[in-house]
């Protein structure tokens, strides 16, 4: 049984009033992530190449310049070309999604993913041994963990936040869908005042 088209009685839809698209938030987040990743890699290659790892904070953080042919955290080192193609596809999907993006939290999440994917894709395009086969620069190492970079961190954080937003019912159009506690409660929408039910008619009025 449904009260409105596509909305069940066991859900309440908290639809925000019409909002502007959040593509600007997405682009700003992506640019900040990309700038931080590219600048850090340039500095690492310049300062740490051909040098032993630099231990900081009593070994809690180590700066270790490495070249990674695989995905984030050195996963899939034998599939460099595939990861490059996947990164291009992910970037294309995010850019297409931005045209119908009205949620600020989702804009930040997609910006993190876009900036991180672009940062590592640049390495695969411009670094040796060749286009779409270039090795990614990694340089951050934590105890008992793979070496990674800022782009990897942005992708990981963005992925975790995306799961959190999905679990809490946040939609890319700015609405929020949450389970309804009442079994017979009607959908609720932000920005719309609930109208009172009409008064019940007496038997005499209904037969007149």
Describe the overall structure.
The protein has five helices and seven strands, in the order βββαββααβαβα. By secondary structure, it is α+β, with helices and mostly antiparallel strands. The protein has a three-stranded antiparallel sheet. The protein has a two-stranded antiparallel ribbon with strand order 1-2. A hairpin with a 4-residue loop joins β4 and β5. The radius of gyration is 25 Å and the shape is globular. The relative contact order is 0.21. Residues 183-196 have low confidence and may be disordered.
Describe the protein's topology.
Blueprint lengths: L1 E3 L2 E2 L2 E4 L8 H26 L5 E3 L4 E8 L11 H18 L6 H23 L9 E6 L8 H18 L8 E4 L23 H5 L1
Antiparallel strand pairs: 1-2, 3-7, 4-5, 5-6
Helix pairs in contact: 1-3, 2-3, 3-4
- Main beta-sheet annotation: 3 strands, antiparallel
Proportion in helices: 40-55%
Order of helices and strands: EEEHEEHHEHEH
Counting helices, strands and paired strands, the structural category is alpha+beta
Strand order of the largest sheet: 4-5-6
> What separation lies between the terminal Cα atoms?
33 Å
> Would you identify the regions where 5 or more consecutive residues have pLDDT less than 50?
183-196
**Overall morphology:** globular
User: What is the mean predicted local confidence, pLDDT?
Assistant: 82
Tell me the total number of β-strands: 7
Report the total helices: 5
Share in β-strands? 5-15%
Rg (C-alpha, Å): 25 Å
Task: Classify the oligomer.
Answer: single chain
């Amino acid at each position: 049984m449904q009260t409105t088209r596509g909305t069940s009685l066991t859900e309440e839809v908290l639809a925000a009033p019409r909002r502007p698209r959040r593509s600007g938030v997405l682009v700003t987040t992506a640019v900040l992530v990309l700038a931080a990743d590219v600048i850090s890699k340039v500095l690492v290659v310049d300062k740490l190449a051909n040098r032993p790892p630099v231990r900081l904070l009593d070994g809690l953080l180590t700066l270790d310049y490495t070249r990674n042919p695989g995905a984030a955290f050195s996963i899939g080192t034998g599939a460099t070309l595939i990861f490059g193609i996947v990164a291009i596809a992910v970037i294309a999907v995010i850019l297409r999604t931005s045209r119908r993006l009205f949620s600020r939290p989702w804009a930040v999440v997609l910006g993190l993913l876009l900036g991180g994917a672009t940062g590592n894709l640049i390495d695969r395009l411009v670094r040796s041994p060749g286009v779409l086969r270039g090795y990614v620069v990694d340089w951050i190492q934590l105890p008992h963990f793979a070496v990674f970079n800022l782009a990897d961190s942005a992708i990981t954080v963005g992925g975790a936040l995306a799961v959190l937003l999905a679990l809490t019912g946040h939609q890319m159009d700015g609405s929020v869908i949450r389970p309804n506690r009442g079994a017979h409660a009607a959908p609720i929408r932000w920005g719309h005042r609930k109208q009172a039910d009409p008064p019940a008619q007496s038997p005499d009025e209904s037969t007149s």
